[in-house]
Design goal:
The protein is 41% helix and 3% strand. The radius of gyration is 18 Å and the shape is globular. The chain starts with 29 loop residues before the first helix and ends in a 5-residue tail after the last helix. A two-stranded antiparallel ribbon has the order 1-2. It is built from 8 helices and 2 strands; from the N terminus they run αααααβααβα.
């Protein structure tokens, strides 16, 4: 998943983007960020932002699964606003086609290299059946599977993702090394093994 979240917490004036359509039921473990924020606010109020917490946890969790270390500049400020409409329109949905994803990234000033780099972050995680069902049963509106999907992988996915129901059945985004940070997700995509 890709996240362009500008504000993750609801307040009296802000409706969080956590609940936007592309994020719905896909972002997990925000309760950990909430616990970290509470502990930091208790120790040093109004010093560390959720934006910094997310940047640090992204880096540290990447390291824990074998990914690289990078310096994380601190001092980000949390957004004073949020846009559910912007989130719904600008964050690529799990079932968007590549041309749609590229278009959404271009609107944000990003290019195809950014699409590949950020998509590569999908090397860790799972995808819900509801996110890729159309690729199995009706990709082009013709009742057929996506022609770029490997036929044996398609059959494997169909066993756990029926034409209807099973929305929350989960499948690893990287079928080779689902708990390691590497480039197999991208290699799988090229081989037709991607949801």
């Amino acid at each position: 998943m890709l996240f362009l979240v500008s504000n993750i917490d609801n307040s009296t004036n802000i409706v969080s983007e956590k609940g936007s359509n592309p994020n719905k039921n896909s972002i997990r473990s925000f309760e950990v960020v909430d616990e970290i924020k509470v502990a930091l606010e208790t120790a040093c109020p109004s010093v560390v932002t959720c934006a910094d917490i997310l940047a640090l946890t992204a880096r540290d969790s990447t390291i824990l699964v074998g990914g690289p270390y990078w310096e994380v500049p601190l001092g980000r400020r949390d957004s004073l606003g949020a846009s559910i409409q912007g989130s719904n329109n600008d964050i690529p949905a799990p079932n968007n086609t590549l041309p749609t994803i590229i278009t959404k990234f271009k609107r944000l000033g990003l290019n195809i290299v950014d699409v590949v780099a950020l998509s590569g972050g999908c090397t860790i995680g799972v995808s819900r059946c509801t996110s890729f069902r159309q690729r199995l049963y009706n990709q082009s509106g013709n009742g057929l599977a996506d022609s770029t999907l490997d036929m044996s992988y398609e059959a494997q996915l169909r066993q756990g993702c029926l034409h209807s129901g099973d929305d929350n059945n989960r499948f690893p985004l990287d079928v080779v090394t689902s708990t390691k940070f590497n480039n197999f997700y991208l290699e799988n995509i090229l081989a037709g093994w991607g949801e």
